[in-house]
Each structure stands twice: as C-alpha cells, then as structure tokens.
Amino acid sequence: MQITKQTKANLDIFQRRKITYTLVFLVLIAVFAGASLVSEFNLLDGVASFPAAMQWIISNLIPDAEAIERIPKILSELMETALVSVAVTVVAAVLAFFFSLLGSNITRVNRVVKRVVRIVAAFFRNVPDVVWAMLLMFSFGQNILTGFFALFFTTFGLLTRAFIETIDEVSSGCVEALDATGANFLQKVFQGILPSSMPGVITWVLYMIETNIRSSTLIGILTATGIGYLFDLYYKRLDFASASLVVLSIVVLVLVIETVSNKVRKVIL
Fold first, then answer.
1. Long-range pairs for 112-116 at CB < 8 Å and ≥24 separation?
2. Which of 3, 12, 65, 85 could in theory staple to 212 by disulfide, Cβ–Cβ 3.0 to 4.6 A?
C-alpha cells in the first residue's frame, strides 16, 4: 500500500512538471511570436536570405593585398587594445580584492560597511561599460582615458562581487582556524584568505582579461581609440576587406588569450 501511494505521488509530481514545462514552452512561443510581430521580424525570410549573405561575405570580406599591407597598423592598434584591457583588469582586480574584504561575510568587518560595499559593487556591475563610455565622453571626450574608466568601473563591480563570493566559499575554514588562535585582521587576510582564495581570484582575473579585450573593441568605436576605432574607420569608408582583417585579428587574439588562460588555470587549480 505504501509503495502504491509513493508511486502515485511520483506520478503526480511528474504530471505537474510536464504541465509546467508545457506552459513555459507555450509562453516562450507566444513571446517570440509577439516580439516578431512588433519588430516585423520574419524567421523564414531570415533563413532564406542566409545563402545570399554567405555569398556576399565570401565576395567582400576576404582580405586583399591592400588589406594585408595594413597588418602592421592593425597589430599596433590590437596590441594597444590588449595592453589597455590587461591594465584595466589588473588595477580593478587589486582594488576589488581589498574592497571585497570589507563586503565578505568571513571577515566580519561591519554590517553597514558590508551592505554599502555590496550595493556599490552591484551598481557598477549592472551599468554596462558602453553606458559608462557614453557618460564619460561628456567629461573626458573621445580618448583612451574614457575607455579605460568605462572598462574599469564595470570590471571593478564584477570582480568585487566575484571576489566576495570566492572568499566566502573558500576561506571559511581557514579564517575560523585563525580566529581560534587569536589572529588579527591582517593575519587572517594574508595567512588565511589570500592563500586559499588565490586560485579563484586568478581565474576570475583571467576571465575578465578575455572579456575586456572583447568589450574594448566596442568601447574603441565610441571613444575613437584602439582596434575598435580602426574597424570603424575601415567600415565607414566601405573598406570591407580591411575591416574583416581587423575582425580576424581580434578573433585570433581572443583565442590566444583563452588558450593561455586555460593553461594557467590547469597549473593553479
């Protein structure tokens, strides 16, 4: 009798899940249909135009001899973009780590301070770097400093939140052991929190370097700097062969950075 009741309960749960999943699927279909109607998007027309789009890409986006001659200029701007992205990430990571110590549950600095830190991190994290770039252009104009701060604010917010979670998850046992020995705040940070959370911190820093290299391309279009500006320049004068070479160089750089990051993660984890 008990098995029958259990089986019936399981069937009821399965039936409820099936109905829930069906309703969610139907809602998604309705949202897609409504959005397509409002935006006048036709999925069939999009699929039908795909062969013509591929033919245009093959005809116009293959780098020619003139584009190849621009490789030194492209590599120079690409290197500038990569170095700015690394500099932004490193500076933001150092500040975010010390800021996250104030917002962690493990360090127990102050409840009010912890709340303020989390609110500040959420604010910087939830404002996109493109929005920061548009806001900062009113003050700094179109230059590399605007791009630096736009990436910095978003990176700082993301890393602060990530470091808080990393510290809370990894360092609880170490900090409790140091608390039992009467260690002060600095001893807990440098002997407990920092060694135990360093692999997670490095992983997040490497991830943000990859992300900032991608984001800096779009930021460069707005701030007229780096590889983004070069792409915008070639695109606006309809030099699609050179623009495609810029895109390819960005893809190669991102793949190289990701490969190096994966090797570093394997070493430290």
1. none
2. 85
| Nearest-angstrom CA–CA distance, 125 and 153 | 8
CA distance linking residue 227 with residue 79, whole number of Å = 9
The structure's pTM equals 0.77
User: What sign for the dihedral angle of Cα 59, 62, 65, 71?
Assistant: positive
Tell me the one-letter amino acid at 11. L
Angle between helix 226-236 and helix 71-103 axes, rounded to 10 deg: 140
- CA atoms of 86 and 92, how far apart (whole Å): 10
Q: Which residue has the higher pLDDT, 163 or 268?
A: 163
* C-alpha dist (Å) from residue 192 to 97, 204, 232, 252: 14, 19, 48, 39
Token look-up 């700097």 returns: 225
27, two tokens? 């809602």
Is 68 within 8 Å of 239 (Cβ atoms)? no
Residue 228 and residue 216 in contact, taking contact as beta carbons nearer than 8 Å: yes
Q: Is 228 left (phi over 0), alpha (psi -120 to 50) or beta?
A: alpha
Separation in Å, CA 213 to CA 24, 64, 137, 256: 36, 26, 20, 12
> How far, in Å, CA of 249 to CA of 265, rounded?
24
With a CB cutoff of 8 Å and minimum separation 6, the contacts of 148 are 84, 87, 88
Instruction: Report the SS3 class of residue 177.
Output: helix
Interaxial angle between packed helices 226-236 and 194-223, expressed in degrees from 0 to 180 and rounded to the nearest 10: 30
Residues whose CB is less than 8 angstroms from the CB of residue 265 and which lie 6 or more positions away in sequence, other chains included: 202, 203, 206
The amino acid that residue 114 corresponds to is K
Reported as a single tens digit per residue, the pLDDT across 36-80 is 888 877 778 778 888 887 887 777 777 777 778 888 888 888 888
